[in-house]
User: Fold this.
Amino acid sequence: MAETEIALDIQDLKKYFGGIKAVDGCSFQVPKGQISGLIGPNGSGKTTTFNLLTGVLEADSGEVFYNGENIVGLRPYEVFNRGISRTFQITRIYREMTVFENMLSASSMKMPVREARERAEQLMEFVTLTKLRGEYGGNLSYGQQKLLEFARALMTDPDLILLDEPAAGVNRTLLNNLLDHIHHLQEDQGKTILIVEHDMNVIMNHCEKVFVLDYGVKIAEGLPEDIQTNEDVIEAYFGHR
Amino acid sequence: MAQNEHLRNFGMLAILIIILCALPPNINLYQRSVIMFTMMYVVLSLSWNIISGYTGYVSFGHVMFYGIGAYATGILVVDYGWHWIATLFVGVFVSFVVSLIIGFPVLRLKGPYFAIAMLGAAEGTRVVATVWEDLTHGGEGIGLPNVENSFETYFAMLVVMLVTIVVAYWVGHSRFGIRLNAIREDEIAAESLGINTTFYKLSAFALSAIFPAAAGGIQAYKVLYIDPETEFFILVTIFMKLFAMFGGKGTVIGPILGTFVLYIVQEITWVKFPTAHLIAFGIFIVLVARFMPRGLMGFAIDKGWARKGMVH
Assistant:
C-alpha cells in the first residue's frame, strides 16, 4: 500500500494557561488531500490546537511542520500566506463590512484587483451568497455567516483548510450545502481539510481519518468506524462504565 | 458601474475646486479666513478618519502632528529664514518620522488604552515645545512676519485639502482601506486572514500624521503667532473627531460634509449667540448624536440614499 503523504506534522505541542494544560504534548499527522476530523469533549484542547497551528496563540513548546518548515512562532498572517486558512468556532466575519468587502479583505495584495474581484464573485456564487454581496455581514443569518467565513477562507486558494465547528448553528440544508462544498474542494482540487466538530454525523460520514483529544492529549486516531468503538474515546466522552 | 461612480465623484470634486478657486476675490477677509479654516478642518478630520475611522484606533492626540507642522514652519521661517512653503515639507517629514517612532509602541495598545496613550503623547509634545526654549522659544511663542497672506494661505490650504481628499479617496476605495476596515472589525480575524496588522496600522497612522502637519504649517503662517498652548490644544483633536463623526467616520465624504456643515454652524452660532454659542453648538451636537448616531452618511445609508460599503 502506498504511504500517505503528510500535510501537517504536529509534534509534542504544548500550551499551558497558568495551571491549565490546554494542550499537553499533542502529536499527530494530518494526511494530505484528505478530510480529517479532530474531536474531543468540551475543553479537550481542539480550538486551542487550531489557534496554535495558525499562530493565533504561541506554543510553549513543540513543533509543527508544514511543507518541511516549522511554522511554530510565525504570526497568523505568515501562516496564512504559507497556504493555511481557517474559520472560527464562533464566526468572525466583519459585521460592518459588506459580503463583497469581507471577501476582498482576504485577497492577496499580490493578486491583481480585477482577479481578486473575479475570485470573490466566483466564491460568493459557490456558496450562494451573490444576491447578498452588498449586504453587511452582520445582517446575515448565522448559517449564511458560516458560509461567508468559509468562502472568505478560500480567497487565496489555500492548500490546507482548518474548519472550526462548521456545523454549529447551521440548519440541515445549509450544512449539506457546506459539506458538498468541502467534498468538492477535497475531491476535485486535492485540498487538505481538518475539521473540528461536535456533530458526530459530520465526522463519521465525511472524514477519512479522526483524531481524538482529551485534556490536551491525543488519545486515539484512526478510521471513523474504529474510533466509534475505541474504549478510551468512549471513556473520554461518557466516563467509566 | 464603479467607473461611472468614480467619474461622478471626481466631477463633484472638480465643481468644489472651481467654486473654491473663484471665491477669494469676491469675499472679504473674514469670509476667506472662515473658508480657509474650514478647509483646514477637512484636512484634519479626513486624516483622523484614516487611523480612527477606518482602522478603529481612536486617537485623542492627533493635534500633536498639527503642532509639529506649525512649529516646523515657525522655527524655520523666523530663525532660519526659510521660505514658508519649503517649511511645510520639513513639517511633514518630521511628523512622518515621529508617527513611526510613537506609532510602533502605541499601536500595540487597543481601545481606551490607545486613546489615553495618544493623549499623553500629545501632552508630552506640548511640554517639550514649552521647555525646549532654545529651539521653540518656549512659552513665549514665536511671532511670524506680519504680511498680508490670506490669498497665499487660502490657496495653499486648498492644495493640501485636495491632496488629502485624493489620498483619502484612494484609501476609501482600495484593498488597503478594506484591510484597515478589517482590522477595525476584528484584528485577530484580519491577521488570521493574511493581513500584517502591524504594517497596516503603522502605515495608516503615518498617513494620518502627514497632512495635519502641512495644515498646521499653513495655519502658523496665517495666524502669525504660535505658542504651545494653542498649537497643541486638545480642542483641535476633539474638533477633527467631532467633524468626522458627524459626517460619518469610516467614509470619505463624511468628514468633508461634516466639517463644512458643522464648522459653518459653529460660526453662525458664534455670530448669533456670542455669549452662548458653545451651548447652542453643544445642543446641536447632542441632537445629532441622539438622532443620527452614525453621522450624516450612516443616516443616508439607513434611508437608502447611499450604498453600504466602500467598494462595490
